[in-house]
Amino acid sequence: MGSLSRRVPEALKSSKYLSFSQPFYKLSWLSTLLGGNSLYGRLNYHHFGLSQAFSSYSRHDSKENGIDLNQYPPEKIRNFSIIAHVDHGKSTLADRLLELTGTIKKGHGQPQYLDKLQVERERGITVKAQTATMFHKHNIHGADTHEGSSFLLNLVDTPGHVDFSYEVSRSLAACQGALLVVDAAQGVQAQTVANFYLAFESNLTIIPIINKIDQPTADPDRVKAQLKSMFDLDPSDVLLTSAKTGQGLEQVLPAVIQHIPPPPGKSNSPLRMLLLDSYYDEYRGVICHVAVVDGVLRKADKISSAATGQAYEVLDVGIMHPELTPTGVLLTGQVGYVVSGMRSTKEARVGDTLHHSRSTIEPLSGFKPAKHMVFSGLYPADGSDFEALNNAIEKLTCNDASVSIAKESSTALGLGFRCGFLGLLHMDVFHQRLEQEYGAHVISTIPTVPYIFEYSDGSKVQVQNPAALPSNPKKRVTACWEPTVLATIIIPSEYVGSIITLCSERRGQQLEYSFIDSQRVFMKYRLPLREIVVDFYNELKSMTSGYASFDYEDSEYQQSDMVKLDILLNGQPVDAMATIVHNLKAQRVGRELVEKLKKFIDRQMFEITIQAAIGSKVIARETISAMRKNVLAKCYGGDVTRKKKLLEKQKEGKKRMKRVGSVDIPQEAFHELLKVS
Ligand SMILES: Nc1nc2c(ncn2[C@@H]2O[C@H](COP(=O)(O)OP(=O)(O)OP(=O)(O)O)[C@@H](O)[C@H]2O)c(=O)[nH]1
Which stretches make up the Tr-type G domain (predicted)? Predict the structure, then answer.
């Protein structure tokens, strides 16, 4: 294989999409760390029984594990991640590499080994980045042999969905290279482009892999041409694989070892390690994932946090192989875990530098904080369960630090939380995890994006909750700004017309339009974030029979004519149902909301009016007429058991209701409102 192409394509240099500050070939582990964002995966004990694995490992020392990390100085280490568009085969490829190196057993009966969360398995998507350490014998002449020297390879499987690109960028901070996996039939898609640039900006060496070549519709030559035209990647450098049949996989690890540079830290400098991620284990306390940038960390060392100055003793240290495996030491360039008696994940600040307490060091620059794109209120479905929900949220946020949480209260729903998410899928996944892992049942309010409102007194505030806006905004609000995104859309050319119509309906502005090849078009749009958070992707997919791909990055705020839309039940505004919409769309959204509510609220003993209003102006109205017969009227007096049963049933039904004023609203009504855009 020839040397990998590292030239910056001219067309890309001028792209508004990116700024290129450093030559592609100039790899710098440190500058990547300083400028990058990274998060290492977590091993979730709840799903994995790792606590047992951990305690049994803990009884052995590193020699019993048969692993002597002293054999792996930086030149014998490669840190790389696998990046790709969603479903192009990252996790399957990761599985095969773990099998190939004997890290997991072949046919371990658990597809997508690194997708540990139940939600990941059910949805078939990767949500959390995950790391695994592998050992691989390689002979410098290229052929893998048992006589070759042994390398330590850290592999990071990253999520492909746009909501989790923050995880990808944080993962890349601990890597010097990336395998860019592209489906041989689907070719380059929107997240291929986005992830390529993330890796490219982090100065990583990129190894292109065309996967799924076993498919009947595979067309590797077409995909090679796309990689050349989009990223200037040399077709002769592209590896062809099938993670399903195993074809071509033997070339992957030799390419990793030959082309990805070793981590560049200094072994004889004072210890500096970057805290990549942390999670809480009820038996061990906080487990931190770390990358040792300089120096050496040993069990029983005294270490300090550069952020808080707090000192700790290293109780345990090791690698993820793929489960927590004590080694007693972590050397320069190695990635592993540390247990140091931290009691809460709040002490373990992602992006912090840990160092020996006795030495003074220059801290590494941490990560940019996660940017919350979507906010929603979370309330216990049963009002009395606030404490239970509070506990569940506290525990889950220990394992998903990318959610922001603040307590809030609603007249309609009582005490709850205002949560900030990276996107709508992230919000959905968070709900699912709350339910599945902690048994918490929640009602969430219509998601909103963070607006900036200016009031007549000149003050500007960020509004994350529509209820915080006064109901007559025309009187007091003088201006509003909404967040926008730069969206990349890739579609087959026959769908261009309908997608342009969709984007203009969503108030989009076209910035770029070009052909990737004779069949596919690449478009760049500026779109208000509000217009894409609900249902945009689904619509895009259904309009293109599933062929569209979409990715976005956040961009600047733009001034917009936004208004608060109130929902009133029997004349009373329901704060949890308020939303902020564009003035031109208010009428349609108001109509849809009241129609949805009419469908989901059952008839009650009295008439219910449902109204949508902007300030004092009602823009949509529906009425639910009063119920004539009581459920018990159906009983023929004497049948006590039947009566009891019916009362029980009614009580059960009530549990799933929220009473707002005098009106009972089923939980489903709240869920349905989330789908109105
Ligand atoms: N035919 C064929 N199918 C494959 C191959 N590799 C993966 N798949 C299938 O493609 C689907 C997606 O694979 P994953 O490995 O979950 O993809 P991913 O990129 O990790 O997906 P996300 O984590 O959701 O981004 C699964 O059904 C795999 O079985 C391959 O080489 N050939």
Answer: 75-264
| Both tokens assigned to 558 | 């733009």
CB 318 within 8 A of CB 325: yes
Q: Which of 79, 2, 545 lies closest to 333, judged by CA?
A: 79
Give distance in angstroms: CA of 24 to centre of ligand 1. Answer: 29
What is this model's ipTM?
A: 0.98
d(CA 311, CA 304): 4
Cα of 243 to ligand 1 centre, how many Å?
8
Closest ligand 1 atom, residue 161 Cα? 25
* Per-residue pLDDT tens over the stretch 45-81: 222 222 223 233 333 344 446 788 988 999 999 999 9
Confidence band (pLDDT; 50, 70, 90) for 283? confident
Do the Cβ atoms of 125 and 86 come closer than 8 Å?
A: yes
Distance of CA 465 to the CA centre of its chain: 22
Overall size of the chain counted in residues: 677
Residue nearest to atom 9 of ligand 1 (CA): 89
255 annotated as ligand-binding: no
Q: Which residues pair with 335 in a beta bridge?
A: 291
Q: How far apart are the first and last CA of the chain?
A: 50
Tell me how far the alpha carbon of residue 124 lies from the centroid of ligand 1, in angstroms.
9
How far apart (Å, rounded) are the C-alpha atoms in residues 311 and 330? 19
Q: Which residue has the tokens 């490992």?
A: 57
Q: Is 157 annotated as a binding residue?
A: yes
User: Any binding-site annotation on 91?
Assistant: yes
DSSP state of 547: -
